[in-house]
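Researcher: Next entry in the queue.
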Amino acid sequence: MDISTLKPNDRIIEIKHPVNDSENIGIRVTIISLNDEKMKSVRRRFINKRLELEKKGKSFRADDIEDNEIDLLVASITGWEWYGDIEFNGSKPEFTQANVRKVLTEFEWFKNQIAEAVGDDKAFFQS
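Model: Structure for this entry, 127 residues:
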């Protein structure tokens, strides 16, 4: 086996109802692994921000950590499909980083499902 061929694949996950986790609500989200090459710049930006704060004698605050989590999750989502009768504020939102950020910020249960899926390293290596 050539380990250079072991690279994470994109995944498509179904968002589940926050109360009944066996019920798909009609949103498919395509995500990439935190270990994906495309995520390096995002991780470096966080490290640089933290180093800059430390250099100034400051430390990360809770809102900085929360903002970083949202930024990381937004970067890990490469697409979504809203199907069926599911809507957000009366329509099916177009896939944009701004719309992803709005949904992740407004719905903690949605954000938690993305965070859990993105954190499942093994799942990105299954065919």
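Model: The longest helix spans residues 40-55.
Researcher: Noted, moving on.
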